[in-house]
Amino acid sequence: MFSKEKFQDFLAKLNTGYTPYVLILVHIMIGAIWVYSSPRSNVAFVVFISSLLTLYGLNTNKIFKLSAGLILALVVMPVLGVRNIFYLEIMFQISVFAALSLGLNIVIGFAGLLDLGYVAFYAVGAYLWGFFGSQQFYAIPYAPGIQPSDLPFLLPGDMFYLFIFIAIIVAALTGILLGLPVLRLRGDYLAIVTLGFGEVIRVLANNLDKPWNLTNGPQGITPVQRPTMPQFAVDGFNNFFGGIIGHTVSKADVYNVFFYLLALLVIVTIIQVVSRLNDSKIGRAWTAIREDETAAIAMGIPLVQMKLAAFATGASFAGAMGVLMAASRTFVSPESFSFMQSIGVLTMVILGGTGSIPGVILGAATVTVLNLQILQGFSLYLSQLRQSDAVIPIINFAWKNLSTQLDPAKYQRLLFGAILILMMIFRPAGLIPAARRQRELAADDEE
Amino acid sequence: MKRFSETINVRELLRPIGQMIAFSLGGGAVLSLVVVLLALLLDQTAVGQNLQARYSVSLVTYTLANLPQVLIDGLTIGFVYAAIALGYTMVYGVLEFINFAHSEIFAVGAFVGVEILIALKNAGILSAASLGVAYLILLLALLAGMTASGFLAVAVERIAYRPLRGAPRLVPLISAIGVSFFLQDIIRLVESLTTGQFNRIIPTFGNFDERLIFGQLPLGATTVVLGVQIKSLIVILVAVIMLVGLNYLVNATKIGKAIRAVAQDRPTASLMGIDVNRIISITFLIGGTLGGAAGVLYALKFTRIDPFVGFFPGLKAFTAAVLGGIGNLTGALLGGIVLGLLETFAGAFMSAFTMGAAGAEYKDIFAFGILILVLIFRPNGLMGENVSQKA
Amino acid sequence: MSKRIFALFSLLIAASMLLAACGPAASSTEAPAATTQTIKIATQSPLSGDQSVLGVDIKRGAEMALEQNNAALLALGFKVELTPFDDQANPDTGVANAKQIVSDPAILCGVGHLNSGVMIPSSEEYHNAGLVFVSPGNTNPKITDRGYLEVNRIVGRDDVQGVVGADFANKQGMKSIFIVHDKTAYGQGVAEFFKQEAEKLGMTVTGFEGTEEKANFDSLLTPILASNSDMVFFGGLYPQAGVLFKQAREKGYAGTFMGPDGMDSSALVDIAGPTLLDGGGMVYSTVAGPASVYPGTAKFVADFKAKYNADPQPFSAQSFDSMNICLKAIEEAVKAKGGALPTRTEVANAVRALKDFPGITGTFTFNAIGDPTFASYFVIKVNSADPAKWGENAVIETLSIAPPSK
Description:
- The complex is a heterotrimer of chains A (447), B (391) and C (406).
- By secondary structure, chain A is mainly alpha-helical.
- In chain A, 70% of the residues lie in helices and 1% in strands.
- In chain A, strand 1 (391-392) and strand 2 form a beta hairpin.
- The longest helix of chain A has 31 residues, at 357-387.
- Chain B has 391 residues and is mainly alpha-helical.
- Chain B has a single domain (11-377), classed as Orthogonal Bundle (ABC transporter involved in vitamin B12 uptake, BtuC).
- Chain B has 15 helices and four strands.
- Chain B has helices at residues 2-7, 10-42, 46-55, 59-95, 102-122, 125-128, 131-161, 170-194, 230-252, 254-264, 266-271, 276-302, 311-324, 329-353, 363-377; strands at residues 200-201, 211-219, 222-229, 304-305.
- In chain B, a hairpin with a 2-residue loop joins strand 2 and strand 3 (222-229).
- The radius of gyration of chain B is 22 Å and the shape is globular.
- The N and C termini of chain B lie far apart (50 Å).
- Chain C starts with a helix and ends in a 5-residue tail after the last strand.
- Chain C folds into two domains: 34-155 and 297-373, Response regulator (Rossmann fold, 3-Layer(aba) Sandwich), CATH 3.40.50.2300; 158-286 and 376-401, 3-Layer(aba) Sandwich (Rossmann fold), CATH 3.40.50.
- With 406 residues, chain C is an alpha/beta fold.
- Chain C is elongated and about 65 Å long.
- Chain C has helices at residues 2-29, 52-69, 71-75, 91-102, 116-129, 142-145, 158-171, 185-200, 218-227, 238-250, 267-272, 295-308, 316-336, 344-353, and strands at residues 37-45, 78-86, 107-112, 132-135, 151-153, 176-181, 204-210, 231-235, 256-259, 282-286, 357-358, 363-364, 375-381, 394-401.
- The longest helix of chain C has 28 residues, at 2-29.
- In chain C, a hairpin with a 4-residue loop joins strand 11 (357-358) and strand 12 (363-364).
- Chains A and C meet through helix 1, helix 3, helix 5, helix 8 and helix 15 of A and helix 1, helix 2, strand 2, helix 4 and helix 5 of C.
């Protein structure tokens, strides 16, 4: 460890005075210009979004941070995103999964209750709007697939906004419903019960097409309505940003921006709620329960209410995001709510750092980017090499002759699995450990 | 002779067999009673008339005629679940950690066994085998699967779990999920590099597919042929041997004593001169070996396997282990039997009792529903002792 | 202290992401060769996860078609590349990939998906971007009922194939039918229409059950055996069906088994063995006809086996056709434009303008919503318990049916 000290000194110097401001601005500028000039380069995009990390991590004053973040999120990102809607989609999915991870983080990270069926609440939200925001109400008497396509819609699309709030309440109630009977369970028993609950919700979504067709079974509900997009919004966007974007923006693109902004709004609200909760009496009660249930009871913490509160709050975030997702996709089907999805969200929480708000968001971002962009891009690159005349240097082996069985696109899960194992071995507390955990780890080191 | 019998603890050998019979009879009796009562109640209602119209038999006749076969089927699948659940419970009992990768260790066992059988078939040995040789070959496949899975489990523990021993309990869980993904694709990679196949099918040999017929029960225009397949009997027999052997190992041998000591209190066990790492390795070896055997049996019973074959049986077996009280060997057996019976009953009778509105697709809901119900009243499972909270 | 570690760490993350992203980036900045322009055709199907067995073969079918038939476009000065995407059978991944696909201007046509649940939301993106897709495996009527120019399929609709099956059963004099499906959009879709048609034709549907079970059908067999039906129809795919049929026979069921084109794989007899020949035997409906009608099919199977050391899975032959349609449409569009690179809309229109395109699973002309104007279905009976003789199964009925007009 000879150079560690020097390196840390160097870092500390970078992080004082005006240097961080310069660093952040340079990073944002490089990222934004790079993405603007080559809108399909993955490197450019990763450099660009990692500027959020620099912004978060470096030491600057709050107003600068806030305004830079706002400009980045509200102006730069939509403009770059409309030039390549794939980036907007990634940001949208990061927001959605970050919201889910934050919700799950309350249950697991704060209250210490292992939940393996969290995606059930997401499903509740999605199917709530999926049912009321589509023609499904009038399709109840028909078996899936054979209903006429000219049925009327039950509610106007603008009820979507109301349903975000209704979904919060309904999902919270579902959380309480699940929480009530299983409160006495501890640890792994709770894990398997929540797992079972998640499966029950999915199986219900898959099977409630008979005797009454409520969910349209495996075929899923489509079209699910979106809120109306007034023409002036599209025109306004075009007038304002049209020059920089370089092409006329269609209504569908503006919808992408709209859902991205909405998801952002939800996530900001959630972050506010979560960080305030964490610092409140409730948050401390959760911590107490997590650390030692028996002692918590002895201290007079109302165990039942607190656990239910954790379940309900966690569930409500997922419910709201479910509504958003259903409208954004105009489609809900049981395939989105499998056990693998629950595991995926759990992975984000633990990879990012259980109990740590920035960590969990980073975890969601990392897994999403890894899954959608990096692993996918890597296998696309290899597949391109295979179709080209390129050879592997040194051993002089033509990519073309690589066995067709060795197709990297097929083995994404293998890479993902390996990454999970390595992460857990080398960074068990997550990417950004919770402050509390850090203290604990530091204490361990001194032993 | 006398000395030999003294060294064998007969009580530990007989106890699990007695429990097994008691659970099977008890579980079967309770469920049968429920179904028959329901049938009697609903016979004269719309439900009964609906069935009369569809199958032209009364609900009571339908229920009674199908009941014996459903009991046999339920017990068979129950023993399959129990065999897999033993591996989960073994590891949980010692480390208090859900080995998510157990389902893939199970799958590897199945693949090794099936690949050996396919190789023997291609060599022409299988078709020429007499009955006795066929059983020997099956035993060989079983042992091969057990060995492969056993060593794989030890390797997985050494690489992916041991470095995480002191970490918070969620950490090894995620690592296990990683191992599970990794192994699924490794199986797929190896299979596609060697055979190019996704589905592997166990060759037909010996007399395992034959069905022993016990009798026939009249049911309207048709009859229900009561019987059990030889391979089902083999599955049950091997599962029983596994349970008895494991029970004996844990409760009546020196290694078993060490395992129990490590399970109860790791630091103290270590102070007593027990090599904790070695014992944990042995635990994984045993758990993996049992998983491998269960894998080969599963392939024998259900014919087709693929790289993702472990997931569903693994989930069910895990449920069974928790239902019975995870960490408890007898509990795994009880959980498996209850789950298997319940699932089969639900699948077989649901559509008759709901007039076709809901059918076999809800059997998984029954499995999880009963789990939730049981845990509400017995938070530590059917046979679980009160586990103290550990951070 | 923690801040510093954090800053170090964030830099590390940024660096590692950069490194990891380096690979794909090279591809997007790579300049195309000077003389030939590059056109890309995308495929989207599950390449990982438990549905990959079908998804990978959709990609392979397309890959083979591209390798065999890219000469025409190469002669016109265009190099065609395949960009295979993995939708993981997950709508979220599918939509994200779709957005990545439409943002690449070199991609002019696409083949996919396997799951209707992924195709429906993803095709909204294709529609918005005007990028044409030809689906080899989505049978859900909703796919084309939206009437998008960009969405086409060459596989039969559920409401065609289900009807074919029921008509056939009726002609064979089946009186009572037990219907089982696999609770997927495909399997249940076919089964629902089979049921509807069977009831219309006056047959008794003795049961209609779904199951996600893949191995243990004992409990489901109880009502099947009790119903004493003439036929068991399974809406789903062969890996499940094979196990179900085998277990049903072993328990004494003597009637006929039937299934849709998801049964069309030699692995079915590998699983179920001689039990398929006992009793009433086993029949399936498919668009991929025998060698006497479509000589290309046999060649396709042989080529596939030679290249990938495995038999093609269901929907692989359709994918081969889909890719050929893409290639042909691009070629037509290029010719119409005098050798210049066509736009996406021109390619989409060229797909619809194809008349009687000769494929290996049918002769295709698309109607106004993107369904083939009429599909030829073959009802085929399994003849041999030897997987190698799967191609010799006998055609016992040929039906041509147009999709229902809306």
